[in-house]
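Q: Fold this one first, please.
A: Sequence and structure below.
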Amino acid sequence: MFARDAVPAWKGPKNLAKRRGNPNWGKPEPIGPVVPTITSFEQIVKEYKLTPDQYVRSTRLREWARRNKNSKYIPEALLEAWGFEIESTL
């Protein structure tokens, strides 16, 4: 009646329910260590070897800020001290 290699229908691979969806749904994504990033402003200040009390008097920093005021982070207090107006894109 039954062949030796026959598998009953209820045990066959065709009847296994397919797992649907993302098994990681609802689980928080693994977060690696927070790596502090340095802003362009901080890089320039370091490159020019300026201390915070020298920022306002530095003509090189002021010129860099004038060119980059709408695209890079520059402290607002410094922009106000130089009389720069910012073009808001919001």
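Q: Good. Now the second chain.
A: Here it is, same layout.
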Amino acid sequence: MTDERMQLAELLEKAGAQNVLREMVEFVAQRLMELDVENRCGAAYGERSEARQNSRNGYRERTWETRAGSVALRIPKLREGSYFPPFLEPRRTAERALAAVVQEAYVQGISTRAVDDLVQAMGMSGISKSQVSRLCAEIDERVQTFLQRPIEGDWPYLWIDATYLKVRAGGRIVSVAAIIAIGANTEGRREVLGMQVGASEAEPFWTDFLRSLTRRGLRGVKLVISDAHEGLKAAVRKVISATWQRCRVHFMRNVLVHAPAGQRRMVSALIATIFAQETEAAARAQWASVTGQLRERIPKLAKLMDEACDDVLAHMSFPTAHRTKIHSTNPIERLNGEIKRRTSVVGIFPTEASIYRLVGALLLEQNDEWALQRRYMTLETLAEVGDTSKLSLSAVAD
């Protein structure tokens, strides 16, 4: 206890009057976390004890917004399970971002029933433009710091997808694509790697987005999973040179459109036998067999099967334990579903910047939640991905 008092005394001597409260909050919060983690582990840091139940595994940085100012915290990580300080409020950033977007729409005179109802319910009818600008600036700074942070390490798997939102631009309401990329690194952790908003999904847009990721440090990508965007496929080939996996779920939807209504159940069952195979060779052989059976009855569908084989089965050359996670965009589709749910209360965004503000805040908080969860993939199975000699690049080697 004497050591802590000495540290606090030194802090008070060094800090100016303006910063002393913020520095004290930071010191106390950090000490509370250390004591809490020490209690959960059953032993102090570095202490050998038979009573130890867990051990530390480094720290992760997080900014805590308080009335005393922004406080930089180093949250301890545990080797088993996760730790989140009880004094932090999960999802607070996204709630503030939503309030900021609603307020911005209100003060700009963009009145819809949904916005008006929210303004009244949140008691914001008296807010000024300067107050809204100040709140927006605070959130934008944090979101942009997150979205532009350096990307460190190798990322074998990259999921990319777009969700569509409405925004006011030039006096009109237009639909824009919000592209989101998430990745799994060699530590088995998932992270949101980037986001970009644009009016088109043409190749230049995808290329610019992927190059922005590589400039920030993205490397080691072995497989990119997405829907069948020709522009994205070309951009992957140009910027990353990785294998491309066509989302299996989207592929099935596309296939069944070409099947007569009365035969869709049969076609679905036939194609499912391909995905039930345990090896790449067996899956390719079954693909050829199913395509042959469909060729006479539904030639257009068989042609689609011929063209899609390499793209849809790309994941089969990767570790078996990973295949359920990498054969489709489901991991990012769930995230997009949450974004749709949380942004539905806005309806029409007042500006493009407001999309970055709210969606970026949601992505930041999802990233924090993933950091607290167990590894998405095990280190043992990820070691197999490092052997690039086993991987096929046929999906992008047109």
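Q: Anything worth noting on the second one?
A: The chain has a mean pLDDT of 81.
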